[in-house]
Amino acid sequence: MSGKQTGYRVEYANSSRAKCKGPKPCSGTSIQKEELRFGTLVDFRGATSFAWRHWGCVTPKILQKMKEMFSDPSDLNGYDDLKAEDQERIQKALEEGHVADEDIPNSARKKEGEEDKPKKRATKRKAASDDEGEEEVAEKPKKSHSTQAKVTCSPSPPRLLESSLPTLTTAVEPLSDHSETSHSPFARFHCRLCQADMCNDPTATMCGHLFCYRCITESVIRTPRCPTCATPTLLYCLFRLDLSA
């Protein structure tokens, strides 16, 4: 082994087992036997060895470091053991700052259409402010996790109610807040919603208050409570009265 120990070495590969440690796309390809290769001394867990690459894969940065380390190519480890034409190749590369194009292996050349594509940078859409002219990032409306159910009430009671409400055929003495001194013979059938003295199709609640059928059904649909005493009331808890008995 000739030359000084500079951390770099050139030699002819003694087998085809070594893999190129140069830049892509040549990285990992085989260095053929008797091919000129360039080694960089590395330390792995206290053991030193060379990481090899094709001579054509030596970068301008490495050549610059070599020029800073020694002034004469003969100081490069292994240089004196090379053929004269290979010594000239190394000397020329040091002078020009890069290896000759013909020294670059085919495995290190990118194929047509494989040039590095510039990465697309994500851009945010900005909206110009009308007053100040400043650019502001448009904010997306936040989704609400809770949804409010919309309740719509029918303006008139469903037709199904006419057949679904129970009918009392016996005489009923309704509870009334109306004064017993009223002179109207129908005062006790007074509707507490429309104020009619005689309910139209009298309908009673479980709490004993009388209303017109249409008045109480519309009221319960809107608010399920008795309009008079606020007792909870549902449609199936209403009773239509048959006064013909």
TrEMBL record:
Every RING-type domain range: 191-229
Annotated keywords: Metal-binding, Nucleus, Zinc, Zinc-finger
GO MF annotation list: DNA binding; zinc ion binding
Superkingdom of the source species: Eukaryota
Localization in the cell: Nucleus
Region of interest: Disordered: 94-162
SMART domains xrefs: RING, zf-PARP
Pfam families: zf-C3HC4, zf-PARP
Basic and acidic residues bias locations: 109-118
InterPro entries: Znf_C3HC4_RING-type, Znf_PARP, Znf_PARP_sf, Znf_RING, Znf_RING/FYVE/PHD, Znf_RING_CS
Name of this chain's protein: Uncharacterized protein
